[in-house]
Amino acid sequence: MPKAEFKSDDDIRDAILDHLYKAWKNPRGMNSHKLKISQITSDLKKKGIEKKYVIRNLLYLIETGWAVEEVKESQYFTGKMSIPTEKKTYRISKDGIDYFEGSSKFQKSNRFAGINISDIKNSVIVLGDNNFVRNEYKELFESLEDLGRHTRMNSEIPDEEKINYQADIDTIKAQLIKPKPDKDIVRKAWSALKAVATINGVVSFYTKVAPLIEALIK
């Protein structure tokens, strides 16, 4: 079994994603961040995670878009015979990178296509996925981003509830482009998010957002 510090599959997923992120963050070449499964399992075994736990949780990360499996096909020649082979490697995805680094102005979105933002550029800033946010709400927006990511990543929360929580988070974020956000809308959406305050792995991000919301709606 994994060591005590890895109490759940989410803990193991975090460890795998962190390992892939560090490989991407410190490259030795263009492809050095693409790791073989044997390398990943060997490295994580040193942290007390057995191979079977690594494999099943890496598969989960691939299916949910946090990691990417790449397959390179080639031919192996023995005399006159040609034998097809394939090499599989694994790397962190752009969503996985955003999980660690948060918002970036290079994330793509056409949400505000057609709006000339230059007229109000002194009042707003551009955050990840081309989200325009009032300068004074930058910390709140980024904290909501963190809350959303960790809510979506949490295996204890049913997918239907994740959708509801993300919708409420997006409702609040949408108000942060306004000079005067609608307090009633923010208050109602925030009230619907109170349930996440009791969920392991999410509560710390909820408590970071709470005082910022209270300051907004007081």
3D architecture notes:
This protein has 218 residues and is an alpha+beta fold. It folds into two domains: 9-95, Arc Repressor Mutant, subunit A (Orthogonal Bundle), CATH 1.10.10.10; 103-217, no CATH class. 48% of the residues lie in helices and 15% in strands. The protein has helices at residues 9-25, 37-45, 51-63, 94-101, 138-153, 159-175, 183-192, 203-217, and strands spanning 67-78, 81-92, 124-127, 131-134. The strands form two sheets. Strands 1-2 form a two-stranded antiparallel ribbon. Helix 5 packs antiparallel against helix 6 (159-175). The model has no long low-confidence stretch (mean pLDDT 85).
Task: List descriptors.
single chain; 218 residues; alpha+beta; 2 domains; 8 helices
Uncertain stretches: none
Kindly state the percentage of residues in helix: 40-55%
CA gyration radius, whole angstroms: 21 Å
**Biggest sheet strand line-up:** 1-2
Helix count, DSSP H or I runs of 4 or more residues: 8
Count of individual beta strands: 4
Gross morphology? elongated
- Biggest beta-sheet profile: 2 strands, antiparallel
Task: Let me know the average pLDDT.
Answer: 85
